[in-house]
Each structure stands twice: as C-alpha cells, then as structure tokens.
Write a structure and sequence with these properties.
By secondary structure, the chain is an alpha/beta fold. It has helices at residues 6-11, 16-32, 69-81, 119-129, 161-170; strands at 40-44, 61-66, 87-91, 104-110, 130-141, 173-187, 193-205. 31% of the residues are buried.
Length: 206
C-alpha cells in the first residue's frame, strides 16, 4: 500500500506548522482531561508522536497507531532514544488491527479524521475499544474550501459542527463539548496565505 506520508515524514518534526498544530492540540487535551497514572491511552493517527509522546510520563501506557510506515519509523527511533518502555506501536488500518475491546481509557486523534473515508465504521471500532465512560478527543479542520491540502486529495474538506456531532451521536457517543480552538495560517496551492479554523470535539462512550 502506498505511504501517502512518506515525503512528509522526512521533514515532519522540523515543520513549524506541524509542531504548532500538535502542541496546541496537546494543550487542549490537558485542559479538558486530567490524565491519570493508570490510564491506557490510544493515539489514533499518531504520526511521529508529536502529540502523545510527552504524555508517556503521565499515563500508564500509550498505544500508538498509524498506517504510515515512514512516520512510525521516526516514532520508533524516538521511543528507542528516550528508552520509553510504556509505548506500544501498531502499523496499519484500525479496521484490521487486533486490539482488545474495552481496554482504552482515552482516545486522542489530531488531524486524522478528514483522511478517513468511512468515519462511522472507524468510530464503531473506537467505541468498542473504550472502557465504559471512556472518552475520545479529536482535533480537526472546520469546513474549508478545499484549499488547505493544496493539490493533495483528502476524504473530507473539514467538518461543520453539526455534521461531525451527528456522526459521533450516530455511533453511540455522548458529546461533551465541541468548540473552535485554533487558527492555522498557511499558503494555499496558489501561494496565497489563508486562515483555517480547527475544532476540538470531546465525546464519551454512551
């Protein structure tokens, strides 16, 4: 399977925008959830671990999932270099990976859902992985004009609040909160700098 992030991975950790997006999402996670030392956390679409690696010192363990071999290669090197023993890395699509049901306290996911074709099916799986009353926090793009990714094709050009809330509610999640938390500025495919809003959605297993 083609790794769509192979080229991005080469400069991902040195990309100021990628670092900024990851740090701001991580800050929002900590504002909304008090991480516990007995938590098992799942980072869905973890990339190189910019968001969740710092959480490894606050939780019991982190399961990090991505389907980009290039991204995970960088992540593995960082985990090895930091001698982190509570990180488990899985490569592949969530639909095909074997993960114990009702084993996760918190799922986090940054800028991943707009790449997912069948969101309800993925949410069904994520729902099954959460413990009772377990929570999920996603950060993603608000609806945009198809210019954020330039010439790259993605499944969704962001989401409006009602649209994404309806998808989560339809997958048996209880919405705790949804709000805009960040503005990303970047050039579009014509080199014109535009502003793009990001939202946070917090939901609980119903």
């Amino acid at each position: 399977m083609k790794d769509n992030f192979e080229e991005k991975a080469k400069t991902y950790d040195s990309n100021p925008l990628a670092v900024e997006i990851s740090n701001k999402f991580a800050d929002e996670v900590q504002k909304n959830i008090q991480l516990q030392t007995d938590f098992r956390l799942l980072d869905f679409g973890c990339g190189t671990g910019l968001v969740s690696l710092p959480f490894s010192y606050s939780v019991n363990s982190i399961l990090m999932i991505d389907n980009s071999q290039a991204m995970l290669s960088l992540l593995r090197a960082k985990v090895l270099n930091a001698n982190l023993k509570n990180i488990e890395i899985m490569e592949g699509d969530i639909e095909t990976l074997k993960i114990k049901e009702s084993s996760i306290d918190l799922i986090i996911s940054s800028m991943t859902f707009h790449h997912i074709k069948d969101i309800p099916n993925v949410l069904k799986i994520l729902h099954s992985l959460l413990k009772d009353n377990g929570r999920i926090i996603i950060g993603d793009l608000c609806k945009e004009d198809d210019s954020f990714h330039g010439l790259e094709t993605v499944e969704h050009n962001g989401f409006n609040n009602e649209e994404i809330k309806e998808i989560f509610v339809g997958s048996n999640f209880l919405i705790n909160d949804i709000y805009k938390y960040n503005i990303v500025e970047r050039p579009d495919k014509d080199g014109i700098t535009k502003s793009y809003d990001q939202f946070i959605l917090i939901a609980q297993k119903n």
